[in-house]
Specification:
By secondary structure, the chain is α/β, with parallel strands linked by helices. It contains eight helices and ten strands. The chain has a six-stranded parallel β-sheet with strand order 1-10-7-4-2-3, with helices on both faces. Strand 5 and strand 6 form a beta hairpin. It is globular and about 40 Å long. The two termini are 25 Å apart.
């Protein structure tokens, strides 16, 4: 085990204790492959499953694994044929048994910090699906809520704006300017400090760099 691997494991143990104190279920997986296996075990056959936009889910192989399962009903907006179908999936996802996503930042003290444009992902995190499973690489870990907000605004948002080919100031400069651009992807900010239903939110920390 390398020093980095050991560091990730020990830091994850600290974060897991703080997540559990906030009534979230938490796990640590050294690799993305192990995380995908764990999630597959957590989601029983017959479940209605959906997921939010996430490079972490794609890079980890989680999205592919969900699409390969024949024993679940998967709501996948990428397969929608029209904007109306996308909207229908957004709404149906709020009644899913399991909703998968990542988090833009996770504080060592256990808070989750996310900023969203459309808001479907954060709506599902806050209320609706019976279970929310969050996969996040250890590169998403920050020491405080303030650091989390800075990470989202100055790292995750600019990279996502570039990926989505949005015409925003941050896509040009790489830094947040608190813009009101028509292409802005930062409409809602949600800080999750506790799961009101014990264990509803399940956080899986992965000992790799994944997503933005």
């Amino acid at each position: 085990m390398t020093p980095t691997n050991t560091y990730y494991k020990r830091l994850a143990e600290t974060i897991i204790k703080n997540l559990e104190r906030r009534q979230m279920q938490a796990h640590y997986c050294p690799t993305a492959a192990e995380a995908v296996t764990l999630v597959t075990e957590l989601i029983p056959g017959g479940s209605l499953v959906s997921f939010g936009g996430s490079m972490t889910l794609k890079e980890s192989g989680m999205t592919e694994a969900l699409n390969q399962r024949q024993d679940i009903t998967l709501l996948d907006r990428s397969k929608a044929g029209s904007p109306q179908e996308v909207s229908d999936i957004y709404h149906k996802a709020l009644s899913a048994d399991y909703f998968l996503m990542s988090s833009h930042a996770i504080c060592t003290s256990g808070e989750l910090v996310n900023i969203d444009g459309t808001g479907n992902r954060l709506a599902a995190l806050v209320y609706g699906p019976s279970n929310v499973i969050i996969l996040a690489g250890m590169n998403k870990v920050v020491p405080s809520v303030e650091a989390a907000l800075s990470r989202v605004r100055n790292t995750a948002a600019p990279i996502n704006a570039i990926r989505l080919e949005r015409n925003t100031p941050c896509a040009v400069t790489g830094a947040c300017s608190d813009c009101q651009s028509p292409d802005c992807i930062c409409a809602q900010t949600v800080i999750t400090r506790r799961s009101m239903t014990p264990g509803r939110i399940k956080v899986i920390l992965i000992g790799q760099e994944l997503g933005y």
